[in-house]
Amino acid sequence: MRLSLTSTERQLRDEVRVFLDTQPERARRLPHALDERIEALRDWQRRCYESGFVGRAWPQEFGGAGSPPVEQIIVDQELAAAGAPEFVNVVGLDVLGPSLLRFGRDDQRRRYIPAILSAEEIWCQGFSEPEAGSDLAALRTRAVERADDFVISGQKTWVSWGQFAHWCGVLARTADPSPERPRHRDISMLIVDMRSPGVEVRPMTQITGHAEFCELFLDEVVVPRENLLGELGEGWKIAMYTLGHERGTAALPRQVKLRTWLDRLTRTAAARETGSGPLIDDPRAQAALAQSLVAVEVLRHHAYRTVGEFLGGGAVGPQSSSVKLLMAEAEQRLAATALELLGMSLQEAAPADADEDEFWEETYLYSRAASVYGGTRQIQRNIIADRVLRLPQE
Ligand SMILES: Cc1cc2nc3c(=O)[nH]c(=O)nc-3n(C[C@H](O)[C@H](O)[C@H](O)COP(=O)(O)OP(=O)(O)OC[C@H]3O[C@@H](n4cnc5c(N)ncnc54)[C@H](O)[C@@H]3O)c2cc1C
User: What are the structural domains, with CATH classification, of the chain?
Assistant: First the structure.
């Protein structure tokens, strides 16, 4: 992969930097209350979109800029390096939007894509169920086909941003399981309007104290036939494409963000005094920071390889599972290092900066989810064993 920027790409990078310098978010903390936070984040995504920094590689006819994909990667890395907030419509941008572009009809793309880019309409992903997480093909939500529509009943869980979403990509069974066919052949993907009668959303509180995800109950929800994404029975294929995107393409901006966090932690360790001098002079602190740096660097190199293959025209395939594993590893190691270091300074001196402690506590608690969402650590290892290394089946 080419690592240096062309003059056009350098110009784009500089444009993002100038834009960021004029934005108050860099200095301002987001509101604590979740609904206010969501509104602030929607406004942020809208402003970035209007400045040309969202959907750069998406087709112009559907509201994108039609530029080479590398441009979006440059923008995302600059935003991450500046500590800018992540886009609130992440499910639309990284998960279901790419599936709409790949499998949707033109009328669906025209209807949904521009509002995904501007965050006018938020999307959520209705895949997991109480008895179908890792084993997604065991899902039981049922969509009964009628002449002009489908009627969906079932329960989804862990639906991120479900309480704020306008649309949900729901995986549902459109045929009864049969011993004649693999069970994933009966699954279809439907676009569900979250304001439909029969939709009930119950927020669930995470260990961070925020309720970012929900249970979703669907009780005879009527979905027009035109909201079928792809063909009937093509839901599994779409879901696998979707998950590949979720796992693979986020890695480059993520490693930039982790590096900025590591630099922040290093500065904090330099500023914190312990009874015997600055925290950063303690060899235990140095060793822990060095291990985190190794994890972030390993992620960076793997991310370049995966994204390089994607930019070269390849699909985001099962190799994205190694990047997903390394992302979780780097994030969890860094967050644990932060807690360890802040703990060491607490033992010896009064906390110097309560905001900093709060940031790391929340980062640590959220990092626990990194090896679960998008497929657990064990499932990524299974994928690597089966589909990358081609090890014999158990
Ligand atoms: C923050 C967060 C956001 C999420 N957002 C969404 C969302 O928006 N939409 C959505 O649909 N889902 C979402 N999820 C759900 C996520 O995809 C599931 O949690 C994940 O797939 C695991 O499923 P499960 O929780 O049912 O665990 P289970 O599948 O019950 O797994 C339990 C444990 O068993 C292990 N295990 C299971 N099967 C195997 C196997 N074959 N081999 C080895 N080990 C195995 C797992 O690794 C895990 O440790 C989110 C999860 C989190 C944490």
Answer: 7-88 (1.10.540.10), 123-233 (2.40.110.10), 249-388 (1.20.140.10)
Catalytic option among 129, 212, 246, 331: 246
Which protein residue has the closest C-alpha to ligand 1 atom 16? 373
pTM: 0.92
The residue whose CA is least distant from atom 23 of ligand 1 is 133
pLDDT tens digits for range 81-107: 898 988 999 999 988 999 999 999 999
340 an active-site residue? no
DSSP letter assigned to residue 14: H
Of 14-28, 147-161, 304-318, the range with the highest mean pLDDT is 147-161
Work out the angle at residue 66's Cα, subtended by the Cα atoms of residues 99 and 44, and round it to the nearest 5 degrees: 75
Instruction: Give 249's pLDDT tier (boundaries 50, 70, 90).
Output: low
Pocket test for ligand 1, best of 373, 383, 393 (most atoms within 8 A of CB): 373
